[in-house]
Specification:
heterodimer, A: alpha+beta, Glutathione S-transferase Yfyf (Class Pi), Chain A, domain 2, 2 domains, 4-stranded mixed beta sheet, 9 helices, B: alpha+beta, 4 strands, globular, EC 2.5.1.18 (chain B), Omega/Tau-like (chain B)
């Protein structure tokens, strides 16, 4: 039987794309990765995601799926080995809840902090730290958000592992320290040590340059205002 | 024998997000207790059940809370399987979910602001649905209502308010025939009638809000 054709359209640095790579890796699914230039979107991307024109897009047997959570759930339902979501509906609801929290609350608060200047910086740090405390509270006593093994919420929150260290380096400030966030610190280590995850993070140096540049560009456009 | 589960829904009468959950529970014939929250004065119970967001709706099953309307919807779908609101086919499901997000994220606020953009948005949604999920109607899901009908149906009072207050018809029969027919058929369903957002009450509230907003900009 012919191997099902799987393509992933993405960029080297997108955390949303990375989560799909993790899911496919965990399930042992082979795929072609197509690097997109978001400043110059390919006809393929425009064909497969005409509405949003964003990455990631998964193409399976010619059918396209967009939106990272949707793709994750599709992958889990299509390739049944090493399930990412738990079976119990309540646990599944919790996994989805924490994933959303990561993207809709924590991520924007981290971004805000990253681009904040002057007095706004302290306020932004407090906000981001509040969210970190909430995550720490949820994780308490667990190896992964999913329990003993890595699951949906871990994959969705995995961007924290390399991105936060990046931001810490650029901003010269330790956000997730072991004293205040023992569970999160342990989780970050457990996550990166998990088979298949370890060497998957995008090259650190390239990411540092990218984020430094982003930050500078942002400051340049807001310089002179307040 | 099915065990009896204790189900409670914390909500607010004007919230479309809460209406969504009411509708899903009704369609599935789930017995539940409803607790009306005063959003200006939230109860200790609510704050305890949803400490992260402090919002409605919150569904509590045998004491365990679930919040965020789409998360609740999927939970309801997986806990009470009949009748299914989502298709089994993972690909078809994958087509429905982004549309759900798109509708839910175009906030109640946006509805009241009523711009060209929102109408454009509805048009895009109609096209997307017609393209990916062909249906003979009257519902988006076909003969019986599905998840998208539940979500769009919850907005029906809001759409009416828009039409009457601002003179903007969001659900034009010619422009968005499937969305129009979905909502028209949905509000006719016996099972959701007493949980649909009461139109007059909503109109009055929106009216008051607008008066207040206009008055504050005058000074």
């Amino acid at each position: 039987m012919a191997e099902a054709e799987v393509k992933l359209l993405g960029t080297w640095s997108s955390p949303f794309v990375l989560r799909i790579k993790w899911a496919l890796k965990l399930k042992g699914v082979e795929y072609d990765f197509i690097e997109e230039d978001l400043q110059n979107k390919s006809p393929l991307l425009l064909k497969y995601n005409p509405v949003h024109k964003k990455v990631p897009v998964l193409v399976h047997d010619g059918k396209s799926i967009a939106e990272s959570y949707v793709i994750l759930e599709y992958i889990d339902e299509t390739w049944k080995e090493n399930p990412i979501l738990p079976e119990d509906p309540y646990q599944r609801a919790m996994a989805r809840f924490w994933s959303k929290f990561g993207d809709e609350k924590f991520l924007p608060s981290m971004w805000k902090f990253f681009i904040s200047q002057g007095e706004k910086r302290e306020e932004a740090l407090v906000s981001a730290s509040e969210n970190l405390k909430i995550l720490e509270g949820e994780l308490k006593g667990k190896k992964f958000f999913n329990g003993e093994t890595l699951g949906f919420a871990d994959i969705s929150l995995g961007w924290i592992v390399d991105t936060v260290s990046l931001l810490e380096e650029i901003m010269e400030l330790k956000m997730i320290d072991e004293q205040r966030y023992p569970s999160l610190s342990a989780w970050m280590k457990n996550f990166s040590d998990f088979p298949g995850i370890k060497d998957s993070f995008p090259p650190q140096e390239r990411m540092l340059t990218k984020y430094r540049t982003l930050r500078e560009a942002y400051f340049a456009t807001t310089r002179g205002t307040n | 024998m099915a065990e009896v589960k204790e189900v409670k829904l914390y909500g607010a009468w004007g919230s479309g997000y809460c209406a969504i959950v009411h509708h899903a529970l009704r369609l599935k014939g789930v017995a539940y207790e409803y607790v009306e929250e005063d959003l200006q004065n939230k109860s200790e119970a609510l704050l305890g059940l949803n400490p992260v967001h402090k919002k409605v709706p919150v569904l509590v099953l045998d004491g365990k809370p679930v919040s965020e309307s789409l998360v609740i919807l999927e939970f309801v779908e997986e806990t009470w399987k009949e009748p299914p609101l989502l298709p089994e086919d993972p690909y078809k499901k994958a087509k429905i979910m982004p549309i759900s997000y798109a509708i839910i994220l175009s906030d109640g606020e946006a509805q009241v602001k009523a711009t060209e953009e929102f109408i454009e948005h509805m048009s895009t949604l109609e096209k997307g649905i017609q393209n990916d999920l062909p249906s003979n109607g009257p519902f988006i899901n076909g003969e019986k209502p599905g998840l998208l009908d539940v979500i769009v149906g919850a907005c029906s009072a809001g759409f009416r308010v828009l039409a009457d207050l601002v003179g903007v018809e969001v659900l034009d029969k010619e422009k968005v025939p499937l969305l129009h027919s979905s909502v028209a058929s949905f509000i006719d369903l016996e099972v959701i009638k007493d949980t649909a957002i009461p139109y007059e009450k909503l109109l009055e509230r929106v009216h008051t809000m607008r008066e207040k907003a206009l008055a504050s900009t005058k000074s």
